[in-house]
């Protein structure tokens, strides 16, 4: 093809010489080009291609189709291979010309959808990807992106071929160096969007977590710096990558990055969306993205620097947390109102069900963000809290005020649900979770509403639950807090909530195996019941409540196979306090209690005395010491009413406290 190019240059030189004469110049027409393209010799076809690129309109699909039909596919393929240095004629000094010409033509041909979708174009994708990997700074890169985008959108096989050819790796590496806001970066982002949306997520995310993390980092920069429509494309691409159910490996790869520039860029971009007048759907998407970022780097991300590298404009470090909370509050109010209308007032159309599910899903994101903010502000004041340096009293007051108002709105939603007889629903359960998170830190907030709705909230079930469980778990931290005071204990007794807590505790400890989260809930429930029993003399307590009888049997059985001092002391202290409410005779006459339970209780309390006698409780274990004092005090009160238990305990060698006071 060297001779072909020389011939073309000679032809061009001859044409230039004749044009210097005064005679009028004749412009080549499309037909002239087509005649050359139909020639038998390669130099004729090459001359025709060189001419057609100088005057054709890339938006004229009809002309493009005529040129494509006139060019033999084999010739175009040979031209590309020679440009890449893979042909029989390696190209020599004209190799770059061949490469640029072939890729320019391929990109132009693919503007016609039927051509882009053809197998002939799909099969060239590996060659284009290879070219891009070897020529990252070449002027032909933009045409390569055009080609890949047009073929991938026209034919699903194009997307598969792009992925199999290592396209995602090339895109990830080049996104880092492409000019900000350029057409190339726009096409690169769209190609990634096509890959993650059209190919099996499980494969893409497991095979390319590092590449996707590089994409996130690069696109986050565009999200931060751009102020045009491409900013929104960046927003939706980032959300698509990070909200995927298989994105865990990408999260891990992002955590391993040596700096936090990407997360800072995310914060800048999200704040820009939330503080400006944009469509509500964009703000909601920004909240989705914020929730993903916090899941990766933690709640501390909500507070941090807000200036771009080299920028003179800087925003307060607390701007992000304030905007995320305010935007989440708005979304919560809107979604709760919409859900109430759809569930209780709107016509029961089939489309309503899908609409409800979408709104519940969106509500869940806003709820999650509020919970993360609650978790963050709960650390304020701690010695290790980085927020202390940037959060002033005014900001803290704004946060608390906003949370109080939103918790009140959520409680109103639950009251409405209660009035409509709704006891089951994931939205209701999620509402209880948010309320529980906040009241665990501020147990006196919205006190009247909480007291009114406590029994109802404890009876709420998720869609897949057969009986209330998670609602009780979510409220346990708050219940444990309020039972530190007599007033809180009275609320639990008057509402009957103590029965729900006892039932929950029994259900947990009767499981064969439970998680660390279950273990934490067990002790919260134990502490709540213990608080209640310790103040039994100050409240009107149902002495014969069957839930406590069942709890005696469950706790004594639970502790039998345990060696943990804290478990044995906790179980023994609760059982000792319950025994003080009744007598041995009354227990044995109860249908839920057997003589075997008496034996188990005897062994449990004997073990607790033995542990103290053997100095198994360390001096710094104040909680266990306090529990032992409860056990000894209660024992001295009821020992005469439980002769069998007393005999079993005091006849054992480990008992050293005959004169307990």
From TrEMBL:
Pfam hit, one: Neurochondrin
InterPro entries: ARM-type_fold (IPR016024), Neurochondrin (IPR008709)
Stretches for region Disordered: 1-30
Listed SUPFAM superfamilies: ARM repeat (SSF48371)
Compositional bias (Low complexity): 1-29
Protein name (database record): Neurochondrin
């Amino acid at each position: 093809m060297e001779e072909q190019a020389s011939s073309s240059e000679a032809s061009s030189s001859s044409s230039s010489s004749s044009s210097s004469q005064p005679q009028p110049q004749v412009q080549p027409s499309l037909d002239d080009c087509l005649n050359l393209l139909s020639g038998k010799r390669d130099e004729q076809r090459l001359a025709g291609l060189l001419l057609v690129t100088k005057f054709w309109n890339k938006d004229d699909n009809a002309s493009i189709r005529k040129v494509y039909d006139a060019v033999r596919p084999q010739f175009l393929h040979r031209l590309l291979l020679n440009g890449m240095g893979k042909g029989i004629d390696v190209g020599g000094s004209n190799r770059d010309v061949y490469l640029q010409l072939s890729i320019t033509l391929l990109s132009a041909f693919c503007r016609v959808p039927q051509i882009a979708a053809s197998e002939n174009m799909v099969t060239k994708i590996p060659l284009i990807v290879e070219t891009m990997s070897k020529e990252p700074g070449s002027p032909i890169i933009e045409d390569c992106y055009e080609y890949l985008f047009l073929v991938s959108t026209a034919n699903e096989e194009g997307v598969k071929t792009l992925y199999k050819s290592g396209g995602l790796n090339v895109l990830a590496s080049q996104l880092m160096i492409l000019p900000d806001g350029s057409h190339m970066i726009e096409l690169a982002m769209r190609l990634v969007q096509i890959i993650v949306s059209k190919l099996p997520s499980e494969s893409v995310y497991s095979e390319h977590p590092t590449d996707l993390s590089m994409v996130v980092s690069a696109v986050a920069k565009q999200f931060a710096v751009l102020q045009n429509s491409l900013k929104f494309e960046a927003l939706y691409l980032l959300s698509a990558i990070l909200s995927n159910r298989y994105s865990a490996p990408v999260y891990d790869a992002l955590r391993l990055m040596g700096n936090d520039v990407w997360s800072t860029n995310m914060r800048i971009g999200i704040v820009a969306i939330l503080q400006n007048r944009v469509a509500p759907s964009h703000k909601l998407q920004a909240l989705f993205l914020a929730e993903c970022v916090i899941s990766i780097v933690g709640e501390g991300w909500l507070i941090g620097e807000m200036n771009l590298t080299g920028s003179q404009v800087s925003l307060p470090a607390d701007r992000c947390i304030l905007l995320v909370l305010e935007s989440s509050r708005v979304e919560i109010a809107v979604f709760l109102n919409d859900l109430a209308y759809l569930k209780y007032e709107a016509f029961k159309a089939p489309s309503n069900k899908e609409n409800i599910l979408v709104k519940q899903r969106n509500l869940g994101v806003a709820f999650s963000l509020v919970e993360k903010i609650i978790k963050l502000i709960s650390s304020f004041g701690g010695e290790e809290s980085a927020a202390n340096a940037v959060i002033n009293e005014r900001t803290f007051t704004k946060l608390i005020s906003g949370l109080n108002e939103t918790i009140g709105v959520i409680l109103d939603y639950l009251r409405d649900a209660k009035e409509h007889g709704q006891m089951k629903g994931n939205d209701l359960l999620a509402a209880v979770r948010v309320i529980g998170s906040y009241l665990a830190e501020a147990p006196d907030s919205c006190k009247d509403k909480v007291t009114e709705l406590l029994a109802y909230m404890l009876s709420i079930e998720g869609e897949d639950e057969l009986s209330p469980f998670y609602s009780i778990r979510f409220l346990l931290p708050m219940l444990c807090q309020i039972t530190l005071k007599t007033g809180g204990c009275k609320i639990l007794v008057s509402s009957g909530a103590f029965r729900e807590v006892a039932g929950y505790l029994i259900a947990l400890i009767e499981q064969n195996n439970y998680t660390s989260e279950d273990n934490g809930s067990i002790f919260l429930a134990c502490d709540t019941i213990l608080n209640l029993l310790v103040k039994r003399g100050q409240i009107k307590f149902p002495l014969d409540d069957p839930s406590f009888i069942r709890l005696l049997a469950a706790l004594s059985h639970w502790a039998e196979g345990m060696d943990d001092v804290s478990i044995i002391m906790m179980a023994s202290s609760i059982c000792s306090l319950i025994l003080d409410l009744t007598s041995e005779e009354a227990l044995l006459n109860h249908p839920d209690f057997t003589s075997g339970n008496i034996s188990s209780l005897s062994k449990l309390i004997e073990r607790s005395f033995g542990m103290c006698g053997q100095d198994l409780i360390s001096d710094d274990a104040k909680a266990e010491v306090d529990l032992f004092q409860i056990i000894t005090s209660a024992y001295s009160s009821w020992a005469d009413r439980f002769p069998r238990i007393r005999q079993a305990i005091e006849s054992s060698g480990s008992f050293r406290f005959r004169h307990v006071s």
